């Protein structure tokens, strides 16, 4: 993890307007509301994951496009410091973000909720491995 780049992206996220327009086409109204409630950094990160997913064989799988946009919706407004601790393996509330995010989506899209809950699980599926690579690179 490049801490300096993450620091810059956290405090100065440059949200791509074209990908925001893409988000509007992918998510339904309830999902958009959840996306828009995310921190600026999480929106930025999710749009970067979307950009990478669109370059893979998952590019036509709407549920993985939605996963790219909403996978971190359970993180809330976590500080940069808390995020760094989490990345280095320290226990933080961020370890529960998949369950929190899944809960937000369970009454909107059950299949998406399941993917959000499992988006960090190793060996979940071949498609999830592709998603995880895009997430890790963003």
UniProtKB/TrEMBL annotation:
Keyword Isomerase attached: no
Keywords: Hydrolase
Domain HD per the UniProt entry, residue ranges: 45-123
InterPro entries found in the cross-reference section: HD_domain
GO molecular function: hydrolase activity
Keyword Hydrolase listed: yes
Pfam families: HD
Protein name, as recorded: HD domain-containing protein
Source organism phylogeny: Bacteria, Fusobacteriati, Fusobacteriota, Fusobacteriia, Fusobacteriales
């Amino acid at each position: 993890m490049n801490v300096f780049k993450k620091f810059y992206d956290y405090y100065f996220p440059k949200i791509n307007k074209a990908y925001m327009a893409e988000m509007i086409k992918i998510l339904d109204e309830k999902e958009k509301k959840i996306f828009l409630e995310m921190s600026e950094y999480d929106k930025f990160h999710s749009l970067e994951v979307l950009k990478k997913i669109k370059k893979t064989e998952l590019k036509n799988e709407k549920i993985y496009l939605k996963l790219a946009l909403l996978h971190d919706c359970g993180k809330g407004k976590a500080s940069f410091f808390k995020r760094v601790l989490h990345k280095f393996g320290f226990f933080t509330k961020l370890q529960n973000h998949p369950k929190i995010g899944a809960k937000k989506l369970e009454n909107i899209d059950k299949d998406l909720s399941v993917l959000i809950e499992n988006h960090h699980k190793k060996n979940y599926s071949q498609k999830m491995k592709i998603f995880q690579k895009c997430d890790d690179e963003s």
